[in-house]
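Hey,
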Amino acid sequence: MPNQYFQFKKFIIHQDRCSMKVCTDSCLFGAWIASAIEDKNISAETILDIGTGTGLLSLMLAQKTNAGIDAVEIDTNAFEQAIQNVNASPWNKQIKVFKADIKKWDASLKYDLIVSNPPFYQNDLLPEDDAKNVAKHSTALSLKELITITKNLLNENGTFAVLLPWFRTRLFENLATKYSLFVKEKMEVKQTPSHNYFRTMLLLQKKKTAKSESELVIKNSENEYFHEFKDLLKDYYLYL
């Protein structure tokens, strides 16, 4: 049974009511975005977190920025869990959590940065639990809808950060290009040197530019974290 909470250095994530639990790749994603902001690769005075779940990404970004963050969640249990986690954090004035369908979000609002860890496993066998259907599958929001909604809500010079299963990367990049969102940075992630890639992290923008590509390996063959992973997560994980 997964832990009912996850303790970070500066905040705690309760997850007993949320179908999607804290996992290594989502933590890596949040730290990667925060690092890009710190390195001034992207600007982020205003942030939108689409499908915030437990509020993890919003809290990770709040720890590293002064941005105003809107976190949107459609599932009632996840929304209430995100409220709980944000209210218990040092950044409860910085993050606003909304129970809303992003398809109906105010299109007049524009953001410097939009982040999303969207549903996985489109067209795979759906689990029986309805909450997991929404959280893990593209039943509530397709990739095409995510891309078009994001483009409408993004500032002209804004950035869209997205975490994907590696096998969906090409599909997503092709769809994004079709709707004039272009990859600026791409990082492919594998568990160990002997594993295949399993996740891709992308930064996209409205203006076409040269694409930077890299890879990150989480652990070595001795099951120890590589230094690049530790550098990204050292301000978040308790024992790094």
